[in-house]
Amino acid sequence: MNSAKKRMLSGMQPTGMPHLGNLEGAIANWVRYQNEYESFLFIADWHSLTTLYGDTGQIKQNIREVALDVLAAGLDPGKCAFFVQSDVKEHAELHLLLSMITPISWLERVPTFKEKQENVLGGEQASYGLMGYPVLMSADILIYKADVVPVGRDQLPHLELCREIGRRFNNHYGGVFPECEGLMTSIPAMPGLDGRKLSKSYGNAIYIADDEDTTWQKVRSMFTDPVKMRKDDPGHPEGCAVCAMLGIYQPDSDEELQRECRAGHMGCMQCKKKLAELLNERLKPIREKRAELLDNMDYVSGVLAEGAEKAGAAAEETMKEVRSAMNMKKRTVR
Ligand code: TRP
Questions:
Q1: CA of 257 to the centre of ligand 1 (A)
Q2: Which sequence positions are flagged as catalytic?
Q3: pLDDT higher than 90, residue 321
Q4: Are 77 and 152 in the same domain?
Q5: Reduced to 3 states, what is the DSSP secondary structure of residue 81?
Q6: For the segment 162-198, what is each residue's pLDDT rounded down to a tens digit?
Q7: Do 134 and 21 share a structural domain?
Q8: Is 149 in the pocket of ligand 1 (CB under 6 A)?
Q9: Are 132 and 266 part of one and the same domain?
């Protein structure tokens, strides 16, 4: 790989089928930037255990779905390292070492910790692993000395913590780690079909793997302005999930569309037809590539194995420096 390039790293949890939010918010950026940076992109299966520890049976299948969608969306495994986190054990080693220097108070104030404790675990006790989620994420980033990390806005507190942990390490043991920067998408957040936040657990998503008809059925059932009953009733595009998605897929005609909706010249059914058309256009090549890959799962497994090989070599380089800086002994066995 070309070492003159800056490094990009990002991960995605295998918590279910990837949806449109994952595609436009994350995967599209991985694909867009894969040429610009030396890229490490991975499926964060250990992270998914923080919430799926009671239901681990689905993780293997979820990993396959993420791998298929990411490759179908255009990630080129020849240009980057695409791998599964648990195939590169060095992430776990660095996580452990970083956990020794991370104050508990830093982790308690991370907003996603409180949010998951309340919303995802439904009152169940949060685990040591959930609290350490951002420490593992810091290890993922620091082990490749990543310069840029494409993430959603919700992950910014984790990046801040990563920089703090890296700095603390450097202060104790000498400068090993650079500071990473977040790389934000410019597109607005994808809404859920029901107008709520898009979430796998709400079942309000269009999946990348959905076929044309399923996509249309889902769009048809989408939440729109409840006071616009007929086409010529004046509409309120704000708060309408169909309008929000049209704004993402057709940003240039967004203003005109909103005007037509308000004026009662455009009905919700017309908007939905347009949206389904745009989505199917966007997803068609991805679905075709996905079907090809599905017939060739050996190739997909090979890609992930090769990716783990490449990533493992880079991770081991950093770990040599880390062990030496911390006065730990050299690695003597595999
Ligand atoms: N926490 C990220 C998410 O849920 C996934 C992730 C794990 C990640 N490790 C990472 C993202 C390292 C960027 C860098 O979206």
A1: 36
A2: 116, 197, 200
A3: yes
A4: yes
A5: strand
A6: 999 999 999 999 999 999 999 998 888 899 999 898 9
A7: yes
A8: yes
A9: no
The mean of the pLDDT values for the chain is: 94
How many C-beta neighbours within 10 Å does residue 207 have? 20
**Ligand 1 pocket: which of 158, 161, 184, 201 to mutate (most atoms <8 Å of CB)?**
158
Residue 155 lies in a domain: yes
Q: Please give the structure tokens belonging to residue 2.
A: 């070309």
Give distance in angstroms: CA of 212 to centre of ligand 1.
30
- Report the C-alpha gap between 87 and 196 in whole angstroms: 36
Q: What are phi and psi of 331, to 5 degrees?
A: -75, 130
pTM of the full structure: 0.95
Nearest to 182 by CA among 149, 160, 157: 149
Range of the domain at 99: 7-190+297-325
Whole-angstrom distance, CA of residue 40 vs CA of residue 146: 9
Mean pLDDT of all residues in 91-105: 98
Q: Is the CB of 141 under 6 A from ligand 1?
A: yes
pLDDT (0 to 100) of residue 3: 64
